[in-house]
Amino acid sequence: MPGWRSVELDPAAGQARLRDGARLDLGATAKAWAADRCAELIAGQVGVGVLVSLGGDIAVAGPAPGGGWQVRVTDDHAAGPDAPGQTVAITEGGLATSSITVRAWRSGGQPVHHIIDPATGGPARTCWRTVSVAAGTCVDANTASTAAIIRAEGAPGWLAGAGLPARLVRPDGTAVTTAGWPAEPAAA
Question: How many CB atoms are closer than 10 A to CB 78?
């Protein structure tokens, strides 16, 4: 049986077990956790502010430079500075972006992507192509950005209610922001 029901938790023993044939991919969460941990360790060892980016999951620790760390938020973390998006400054915590544009393909003639809705076991049906979230940690930002893709139209209210600054981008490129995400500069 695929899906979250294949995971058996034993809270008393502090263990998790997967049923036969089940696999668990902690890639995104582990990457965000590693960014948080590396930023903390490096800042503690060298005594300066640091920014760690692991595949676009960003964690900062220590004092930020004047004006904050300048980060370009786009659909693809590997895109250049001219890619559609927005440059924001962060001074603490983490920033993560989840997107259905880069890790996407066709299956049976239908477009699919890598963000799975746990309720259906299939690719999330969403109204967002990209969601970027700033939070106290990279793990929190990563979790919230992926959950926002799955929450679809309900995401802006959920993020605002959680006090999480976010930028949600629709397929046509229009952006919705929440909870103090900086306004995009007006086009010249």
Answer: 9
Write out pLDDT tens, residues 33-78. 999 999 999 999 999 999 999 988 999 999 999 999 999 998 777 7
Structure tokens at 112: 């699919």
pLDDT at 104: 63
Structure tokens at 63: 């004092």
**Cβ 90 vs Cβ 57: under 8 Å:** no
Task: List, for residues 77-94, the tens digit of each pLDDT value.
Answer: 777 778 888 999 999 999
Instruction: Give all domains of the chain, ordered by start, each with its CATH number.
Output: 25-178 (3.10.520.10)
